[in-house]
Amino acid sequence: MSVTEPLQPPQEQKRQPGRESEMRPRPEYAPLVAGSGRLRDKVAVITGGDSGIGRAVAIAMAREGADIAILYLEEHKDAEETARLVEEEGASAIKIAGDVGDEEFCRKAIEQVLDEYGQIDILVNNAAEQHETDDLSKIESKQIERTFRTNIYSCFYMTKFALPHMKRGASIINTASIVAYRGHKTLLDYAATKGAIVAFTRSVSLALTDKGIRVNAVAPGPIWTPLIPASFDAEKVAQHGSSTEMERAGQPNEVAPSYVFLASPEASYISGQVLHVNGGVVLNS
Prior knowledge:
The protein has eight helices and seven strands. By secondary structure, the protein is of the alpha/beta class. It has a single domain (41-277), classed as NAD(P)-binding Rossmann-like Domain (Rossmann fold, 3-Layer(aba) Sandwich). The chain has helices at 52-63, 76-88, 103-117, 141-162, 179-182, 188-208, 234-238, 252-263, and strands at residues 43-47, 67-72, 93-97, 122-125, 171-175, 214-220, 274-277. The longest helix has 22 residues, at 141-162. It has a seven-stranded parallel β-sheet with strand order 3-2-1-4-5-6-7, with helices on both faces. Helices cover 36% and strands 13% of the residues.
């Protein structure tokens, strides 16, 4: 495949974390397999659950029987569509809008989930933002703090408030990234947060082993989500995914099964691990 041949139409969005409704083509979110009730009677809280990987995970978990709490920033149209798709799977959905980088919002969101469902069995820390910068000296402290608040502070906050209500057998799943292992020359603060998420996952898994709560992560490679046109120029968006062995970007519904697996009973002997869904890229660590 020629490196100049577009893999998807050139496009840009001017705001983070992006709108799925404005993408072309739209990401593929429909589950690839039939459900078998693996998450029946469970409640899953998913940050960044309105679109992209979060949407695909919400629908896949709903197909397996879980009710879903969708946390998102302000992408109301995307969140409404995700809730509708969850309900089409026969599950219940609630939408909670706000900034997961704010500790008080996270506390109130967990309270709202408990008021609605009375339990939390699965926490998916998936919300993220990224900002491309070609010169380290241009990265302002405001950007660094913002990226860390959204990507890693939120993991601490959500876990902190959800944990007292999670019982033995519960599961926490964090979204890391291939850049935690390979780095990225223009996503410096983003890559740093994803490395922190890997360390957070491993550390919290050790802390919670005695409680019977498993903590794992998924490290996607280049996936076709709203964050891509919201982060890169049109030329880079057109080539997104070309660096993988499969020479294409992955779809959200190709990542979602890893989250379902890690949340399900068959992953009962897995904790502190990272699943790599990256189009065949072989990593050294």
